[in-house]
Structure formats: structure tokens, C-alpha cells
Amino acid sequence: MLTPVRTGAALLTATLLTGLAAGPASADATASPSAAPVTAPAALYGKGDPAYDGVWRQSLALTALSAAKVTPADAAVDWLTGQQCADGGWPSFRADRTAACTPATEDSNATAVAVQALVALGGHQQQVDEGVAWLKANQNADGSWAYNPGNPGDADSTGLAVSALRAAKTDPGTVAKSGHTGLQALAALQLGCDTAADQRGALAYQATAGSPLTANPLATAQAALALAGGGLPVPVGSADGTAPKGCEASAAPAENAAGYLAATLAANGQHLMLAMPGATPTPDYAATSWAALSLVRAGHPLQAKAAADWLAANAGSWAKGTNGPDAAATAVLLLTAQATGADPHSFGGTDLVKQLTEAGPAPKASAPAATGAAKKSGSSSSLWTIGVGLLIGAGGGLLISLNRKRAK
To answer: Domain Squalene cyclase C-terminal, which positions (predicted)?
Structure first.
């Protein structure tokens, strides 16, 4: 997976706009683009160099598999908990877990998704509590979170942190620094309804003194999930739902952000675009996936489904990667499929659950794949009839086995 090193403010912004990875790259100041590639540990999902996204992709993978009723290997979970630093935060990756972490290079994005993964898995309350304590301790004075402590906050990091707090059953409205909460920090980065029509309701990545806010699709897509009161995984939306209204000054920030996402998706053929200075704009699969998740959580499943359908038709190569499955990309697509009611076992012809499972250590248990036919009521009736026949022929024990077999 291509993940650039962030070595300065300009490169930082460029990396967050690339969309080549399912999440932002690490800003670990100790890393060097000339450093020898790190071999992925056996317990890690994905075979690419984990130096800049190990915790990020492991957390997304565990969250997605847990939501798909797959019980991951203990080694995979232990790897994630073993990456946690003594102060409760997570770095992007540390090869030597016995070495002390460098606080300045700990990663709020990795910490936020690790907390959400451990909440989804259950049974890791101490690590979750320590992660929440780290987030509280490293909140900026304006209520935001930076990728690495001590830097200006940004919308992506703040949105992920707010979602992690909610997942851990901590009201983000009660987590404040100098009287400012993360939700207030996000609102301060949101463009108003008096800006250009194609930017209204969007969020900027960061505020720059002396410059107007500029819409950032990826920042908006990730932060909108937090504004809508959600986190990972996103439960499936209802089959109906109204389209977002146009930007209204009196509307909630989440609704205006959803309006921007829906309008921008529609204007680009149901996907978001990546626009790098001097480069030809290209589809942004990561931002499109997060946009779909945020729209489901905001109560707009029909608009989310249109984006998910586009992803199913076009994002297969992104998830497959160039050197084996991209674990983070596959996990985000799997979460998107689940949230939009698509079949994750046949998403654009790909079994995302199988692809992600095979990208890491063998799971302890997996739920049986539900085919499209089995989901239909007629097929369900047929299966029930077969089950009754089996009950008559072989006794109740076999029927119970067929109907009760689940992943533990």
C-alpha cells in the first residue's frame, strides 16, 4: 500500500489528500523514506510495510471482521493491544514493543480506531479506558486533536477522536480543553451556507491564518460521521430516507455536511474526487467509502447506497492492492457494504470477508456466508422446509446444529 511519509506541513496536507490509503499516513518523525521496509508481522493483516499504518489497518480489519461475525485469531488482537504505549496512546507502528514510545510521535488516528476496534471486540475495557485517557490528555486548547500531539488540530483527527469517545460511551460534549469541545472544533472548520455552492457544508482540513477555509472531501467524509453521532462500525440504515436538504444556517452541522457529501457525490457520478495540485483529478475510493458511512449514520441511506454501488463496480483493484489484499481498503469497503445493506460476500463480485480474512492470521471462527438467494424470503422458506425434513429424518439435534451454528 502506498503511504507517503509526512515530513512537513505541505507534505502533510498532500498525504491526507492522496486517498491512496484508507486513512492518513503516519507523521512519525523518526521515520525516513530511505529506511529499509519493515516486514509485516504474521499477526498483522496485510503484507505491506506497516511502518506508517500498522495499527490503523489492524484496527479497521478487526472492526470489520467483528461486525461480519468473524472471531479473529487471538494473535491478531494481542498484536493490537501490544502496540499500545504506557501512556495509553498508540503509535502508527512500533517494531520493538519493549521499547518506550516517543510521546510526540504517538498517533491520534491510530488511537481512535484502536479504541473503536477494542470496543467492538469486547473484553478490553482497561485498554479502552487508557486510550480514552490519552485522547483527553492530548486534546488541543481549541477542542481539536492533531495527528501527532503538539501540532495544530485537523478535521480528520478530531472527527475520529470524537467517534472513539462515543464508542467508549464517553460523551464528547463533556471532553473539553479550555472550554472547547471536539464538536465545537469541527463546527469551526465547517464552511458556511454563504460560501460557494459547491463547498457549502463541507469541512476544511485545517484552518490557516489569513486564508479562507477550503472544502476537503476526505476531511468532510470522516468528520461527518462524528458530527452525525456515529463511529465504527456503522449499523445498516433503513431502506428509506430523505435526501439531505440544501445548506441551511439553522440546520445541524451533520445535516449540512451530509448535504455537501450527497451533492458532491452526485456531481461526480457517485464518488468523491482527489485533486492534487498539478495532477489530474482521480477518484478517491477512501473518501467515497467514508462518505457512504457518514450518510448512512446521518439518515440518508439511499444516497449512501448509490456511492456503495459505485464502489462495488469500481473499487475492486483498490482493495486487492498490488502486492496482495490491502487490508485497510478491504476493511473500509466491508464496513461500507455492511452499513448500506450490500452483501459483503459478493460486493462487485468480491467476497470481502474472505479477502480480509485471508489477509491475516486464520480466524478462530467465522459465520457462514449468506448468499443473495438465501436472503430472499422464498429461499428462507425453502431452507426452513429442508430443515423440517431433516428434523423428521434425523432428529432435533441436527436441526439445532444447522440453525444454531454460530461464530463464538
So the answer is: 54-146
